Amino acid sequence: MSRGALTQLRDLVPLRPLSQSEALRIAELQADRLLKLAGLSAPPVPDDLILEIPKIQVRYMTPWPVSGCVDWTGAMWTIALNAAEPRVRQRFSLAHEFKHIVDHKFVKLLYPGLPTMGSRARAEAICDYFAGCLLVPKPWLRRAWTEGRQDRRALARNFDVSVAAIEVRLSQTGVARSYERCWARPQHSDWSSDSYRREFSSRSSVAV
Questions:
Q1: Which residues are registered as beta bridge partners of 56?
Q2: pLDDT of 71-98, one tens digit each?
């Protein structure tokens, strides 16, 4: 992974308070950029995508009171993960904590408190969303779904995430709903498979 990966991800963020919709969109753009930097185009996303970034190390702790946390030691970022939790949960926590690293120093500026959500809660929600976008990118999920791979457990195995993560991403992306709407459309004489694909192609956060 390029030494400038963190810089490139941070450069996608305007240094001003973000609305929640802006923050979610930027998190998705960052996840997409990271996948492109690594040259990845199909699941599962390997843990090494994050582990190979310079100055980041991971420690697997047990017992450990939380799913994950991150700390700057002065020379390196250390992500601590709960080794007693399922591997798919650890993968999600790794991606979540990495987003905290990306947002470091600017959290309070980017995510000021809202009447319905405090600054810290906003940051946690954005980190969850980033993790989902990174491990289950919308284009990959859409491709799998439209190819007929719609069993949630099979999708979870394919993406190496939990079934809950797949359910959340299906809800966040609207992939399943979009597919169902397209097939529910009345079949007119000009409703070809090519027109379906064109319409479909043209055609948010909890921890899991």
A1: 77
A2: 998 899 999 999 999 999 999 999 999 9
CA dist., res. 195 & res. 203, Å (int): 11
Going by the DSSP 8-state scheme, the letter that residue 204 receives in this structure is: -
Neighbouring C-alpha atoms within 13 Å toward the C-beta of 195: 8
Distances in whole angstroms, Cα of residue 179 to Cα of each of 10, 150, 163, 165? 34, 11, 20, 19
183 CB burial (10 A radius; 0-12, 13-18, 19+): exposed
Measured between alpha carbons, how far is residue 104 from residues 8, 43, 124 in Å?
14, 28, 13
We find that the CATH architecture of domain 5-202 is: Orthogonal Bundle (1.10)
Rg value, the chain, Cα? 18
Cβ(59)–Cβ(78) under 8 Å? yes
pTM above 0.70, yes or no: yes
The residue-averaged pLDDT of 14-41 equals 97
Instruction: Give 126-160 pLDDT, tens digit per residue.
Output: 999 999 999 999 999 999 999 999 999 999 999 99
